[in-house]
Specification:
The complex is a heterodimer. Chain A contains ten helices and nine strands. Chain A is α/β, with parallel strands linked by helices. In chain A, strands 5-6-7-3-8-9 form a six-stranded mixed sheet, sandwiched between helices. The two termini of chain A are about 30 Å apart. The model of chain A has no long low-confidence stretch (mean pLDDT about 80). The longest helix of chain B has 29 residues. The chains are: A alpha/beta, B mainly alpha. At the A-B interface, helix 5 of A face helix 1, helix 4 and helix 11 of B.
Chain lengths: ~240, ~260
């Protein structure tokens, strides 16, 4: 089996930047304290994480809020870099997507589809060719030409999923998305995800709800306190997972 | 490699279209605004220095316009730079794309507005019974490229550093105002007292504005001034890119 995502002893710490962003005045008035604080204040979001996700697998990540799940997604998406260790992601040929995120609030739904499409590496021609299909799937009708900032969270989810559903991803990142949207659309999404699964799309699903993970995933990783608590089948974890 | 360039071009096109669409939603008015702003400034300085203080410069209105229009491009881009990444945090945090495309299209957009305002300069030339020179054919593109590199480089510096040091936004506004008066925009470089003239060489904008004005008003191109301008442009572009490259992987962390 060919691994699509590989994490090797990955740690991620964030310096706490607010000491600097608090302004030069604060820094100058507390110069010594300020410098010490900058040097020492670090927040460890992930500690020594290793796992592999294989092609065609649906891989779940569960854990409480702030456990480090979204940091994992950020690392996979390439917007973050690990402090220690190595993250390898294969299959970048097709776009890598995260649902419902990365929209520009001032642009309309239609413009966002185009923007997001080119940002993840498609050509304008490819996107305009699929535009009608995406809009049809989203069922957003007239709202598609309204700025995204007036969308409800359910509508955002629709837009996000519709883009993904029509662009044939190779690797799909899903962050707490199926919780929003009405049940009818949710069903539609789950159907499309099942199709993806059949088609060999690798999916990474982040959630704090075990039910979602249980029904959809092949394997699950449980992150607790920035470390891996367990890695196994959804059933194994279900019996231990308290939340 | 070619697919990468195509990717960049597509991003720039979509971002530029978006910005222009917002700006020119009501086409006629949008255009008037981008020309109206420097014209209003020109009027103010004309009244203050020509009507009131009787400055001894021929065709002072034309003189002002030739300096204020390129300055407008520069100051618009720089004033928008500190917030360009902040305003796009939703996409920066979620999608891995070349972030420098944001300042790039910002500066590109202001360049387009500047190019669109050149006909107004021509109009003023005719009012003052002058004609555009043939030297414009290569002088204008050259200066456009040099100003673009310079402003893009500065924009990279300001936008990147501002994420880590938010006071830079205020400093940019103040700095630009100071620089405006230190740069020979509303007065000719020849009026600067001799003992301050060496300082002028340190100001990259001074060469730029003087070059524009010489070219637009008289069609003259001074090779030495162009050379210094070119060197400054390259240096600033290089410095800006280095700073951007050093900081860009942290953008998603601080936003």
């Amino acid at each position: 089996m060919e691994p699509v995502i590989t994490f090797e002893n990955v740690s991620k710490t964030y310096p706490l930047y607010h000491h600097i962003t608090g302004g030069i005045k604060n820094l100058i008035f507390n110069l010594y304290k300020g410098i010490e604080a900058i040097r020492n204040s670090k927040y460890e979001a992930l500690h020594d994480i290793s796992f592999q996700v294989f092609k065609g697998e649906t891989f779940g990540i569960i854990g409480k809020n702030g456990a480090g799940k979204s940091t994992i997604l950020g690392l996979v998406a390439g917007v973050l870099k690990p402090t220690k260790g190595r993250v390898t992601v294969r299959g970048r040929i097709s776009p890598l997507l995260e649902l419902g995120a990365g929209f520009h609030p001032e642009l309309t739904g239609r413009e966002n589809i185009l923007l997001k499409g080119v940002l993840i590496g498609l050509t304008r021609l490819e996107i305009t060719g699929k535009m009608d299909e995406i809009i049809r799937f989203s069922e957003l009708d007239d709202f598609i030409d309204q700025p995204v900032r007036i969308y409800s969270s359910g509508m955002l989810a629709r837009l996000g999923f519709s883009i993904v559903a029509s662009l044939n991803p190779e690797l799909l990142l899903i962050d707490e998305i199926l919780a929003v949207g009405d049940s009818e659309f949710q069903k539609k999404c789950l159907e499309r995800m099942a199709e993806f699964k059949k088609g060999g799309v690798t999916m990474l699903l982040v959630s704090h709800s075990i039910e979602q993970v249980e029904t959809n995933c092949d394997r699950v990783i449980w992150i607790e306190n920035h470390r891996i608590k367990m890695l196994g089948s959804p059933l194994d974890i279900l019996s231990k997972y308290p939340y | 490699m070619t697919s990468k360039i195509r990717h960049y071009i597509d991003i720039a096109t979509v971002l530029l279209q978006k910005d222009l669409k917002v700006r020119y939603k009501s086409t006629l008015f949008g255009y008037l605004w981008s020309v109206g702003h420097p014209l209003a400034f020109a009027l103010v300085f004309f009244i203050a220095f020509k009507v009131v203080m009787k400055i001894q410069i021929d065709n002072y209105a034309l003189f002002l316009i030739a300096g204020l229009f390129p300055w407008q491009w520069l100051s618009n881009s720089m004033n928008a730079s500190p917030t360009i990444f902040l305003a796009n945090w939703t996409i920066i945090k979620k999608i891995n794309f070349p972030r420098n495309m944001l300042p790039f299209t910002l500066v590109l957009q202001d360049m387009v507005h500047y190019i669109l305002s050149i006909p107004v300069i021509v109009l003023f030339l005719y009012i003052y019974r002058k004609t555009p020179s043939l030297n414009w054919l290569y002088g204008v593109p050259l200066l456009l490229v040099m100003q673009f590199s310079m402003v893009y480089g500065l924009s990279l510096i300001i936008s990147s550093i501002n994420l880590f040091f938010r006071d830079l936004e205020r400093l940019t506004t103040i700095g630009l105002t100071l620089l405006f008066y230190f740069t020979p925009v509303i007065y000719p470089e020849t009026m600067i007292p001799d003992r301050f003239k060496p300082l002028l060489t340190l100001n990259p904008f001074a060469h730029l504005i003087v070059n524009w004005r010489n070219l637009l008003l008289d069609g003259t191109i001074q090779p030495i001034l162009f050379g210094i301008n070119f060197a400054y442009s390259l240096l600033i572009l290089w410095g800006g890119y280095m700073i951007y490259r050093k900081l860009c992987w942290r953008f998603a962390e601080v936003l």
